[in-house]
Amino acid sequence: MKFGKEFKQQKVPEWIEAYMDYNGLKRILHKIKQSKLLEEPPTPSRISQQRLSLYRPFSDLNLRSSSDDESTDDVENQVIAVETVRQDDTREVYNTNFLMSPRQSEVTFFEKLDEELNKVNTFYRDKVEEVIEEATSINKQMNALIALRIKVEQPDINKCHIQRIIATDSGSIESSNINSPSRVSLGISHIPYPKSQIFKKVRHIDSKSDKHKSGPLDVLDRVKINNTLESPMSTIRSVLNDSKDKDLRFKKEELKEAESRMKVVFIEFYRKLHLLKHYSYVNILAFSKIMKKYEKIALRRAAMSYMKIVDDSYIGSCDEVTLLLDRVEGSFIKYFANSNRREGMKLLRPKRKKEKHRVTFFSGFFSGCSIALLIAAILLIQTRKVMSKQEHTMYMENVFPLYSLYAYIILHMLLYAGNIYFWKRCRINYPFIFGFKQGTELSYQDVFLVSSGVTVVTLSTFLLHVHMKLDSVHSIYEKYIELVPLILLILLLLIFFCPFNILYKSSRFFLIKSLFHCICAPLYKVSLADFFLADQLTSQIQAMRCLEFYICYYGMRWYQKEQKCHTMDLYNVFYIIVAIIPYWIRFLQCVRRLVEEKDWVHLINGSRYLLTIIAVVFRTVFELKMKKTWKVLALMTSIASIMFNTYWDIVVDWGLLQRKSNNLFLRDKLSVRHTSVYFVVMVLDVMLRLTWLQLILKFNLHYLKGTAISSLFSCLEIFRRGVWMFFRLENEHLNNVGKYRAFKSVPLPFSYHEEEEEEDEEDEKDD
Fold first, then answer.
1. What is the full DSSP assignment across 71-126?
2. pLDDT surpasses 80 at 658
3. pLDDT average, residue stretch 511-531
4. So where are the chain's domains?
5. CA distance 145 to 620
6. What is the DSSP letter of 213?
């Protein structure tokens, strides 16, 4: 694989703009090559000289002579001189000057090269400063955690005894090899940072915080437990008490919760350090590769002198990240893995999910079985003339919504699998955006396998059910045959809620957790996964009505089975309520975000869902009663809702139709190369939203009547939502790229009193 493609694959998606522009520099080198060919076209004499050079004595492996030759060549044939200009105490700017007469394209190349070097140095320095500040915060958190651990596990221990243990431990550390990662701690003392000016402020903060410490347990007097509002009851208590923090009670549950949070903090911090180290490595390698290409094309030796500047720059000489990595590993292994390095590194470095050949095999196998079963179901209905017999017509009308539930779910899963495939193609970091645990996210093959497996089970059950029903119309087992769809539903629900570590347990429980957060809105802090799932539920209204039909169909008495559920008033009331629930969840989530973020955009978004609720109510009432007054109200509210929602989809959720954009009527950054795709999708979104007017206007569609029409439009709505899903996540990813946001914010377990922070600020002013 060429380095350009490898370099692109190794980039952190959210930091793409911060990497060295390797392809841009290659394009300039191509111009240098073209201009050189125009100036010096190849002649027979030059070709013969190149051939004769191959017959010279071989001495390339003679290290002493080659090094001497290179040193003399560097002194005599120096091409460039890189000037270092200091902007302040810590930051440098590099500027390359030519010592020989260059081509204009070469001047452009080195100007671009200097610009890229300054860019990566600035970005890397800023990120290193961030991790140093974060390390200081982790130090304070670990001091509090260790004190809490001592207080909980050994409440009667003498303070003088603790001081002696710590003094002995610190003395042994100083006398031992300080570079050993297993002997360095983040918790007992502050991190021994390297002697550089960038860390003076950090060590100054640590020294000031040490002044307040009179003993290892005294830190607990200035610490409270952060309340992260992880349950509905904690949210209600925080609203009533108007406090996000709670005092320490020194219980084991409290210690366990703090330790689990600190584990997550360490793992995320370690991942950040690892990505920073990789960022430094691949950029230095890119500079080395591009300079080799320059030497090969321009036939001038400049790589060694320029790479010396790169190595001496901040990104090439800074070793703070490497030292922090060693200290984080040692501290995590010591405090969270019982000094077991293997177990500790498993937690710090989770394995990436590998593609399994059996997943691909069974996906293809189930797909073929699904097609065969679908053809068999169609042939069975046609050959037995099920739809033409009057005694089976009513039964098939009841069976259709019982099995259409799975069709909606399978279609949604297939669209999700397609989205995952295209997200990967476009390098959209969907696991980070959704908050999946590393190594547990499903690939598109996994989702396709699940959807094809559900399809095989559903079609097999449908064939078995219909065949048994047709052969036993007046059988005594007829009532038991009708329980087949219910048994299938119970079976799939048992698999979905199965607590054992089989069939993608982590993904199932992540979905259950998000679904529970949606049901309990607004009692949970709203994450992207939660409101994203609630938006998906707005397209599954017909599936939710199928669940209501299950309750009606199997909840009625046996002698009422042939009665239609829509003749019952209670069923019709819940028929409307079920359609409102997803939009009401989204409205409550918008209210929660409005209260927390104080952004009035969420109020506008919430009003959009309220308008949709009104439109759905009028449309459903008209569908049930078919009166002209309800038709006018349904038509007016539906048109208003469609216009509002379409504008929000295209402008807000997708970020398109920007006036001052480099791409006409789109946005500056696009993940899809062909801009025509965006225009097609915008038109498609408008058309698919307008299809819901068919339920009000009642156009004459041949061969489509009753539930078939609503089922068709429900499938179209699910398809529209699947398309919306891709571009909504693309816009979210590009927003993360613009802010270089590649890590999730992890809540810390402890918070220090405000009095300490005020004292620190006063000390800084005095200094």
1. HHHHHHS--EEEEEEESSSS-EEEEEEESS---HHHHHHHHHHHHHHHHHHHHHHH
2. yes
3. 91
4. 1-43+82-218+250-349, 357-519
5. 56
6. -
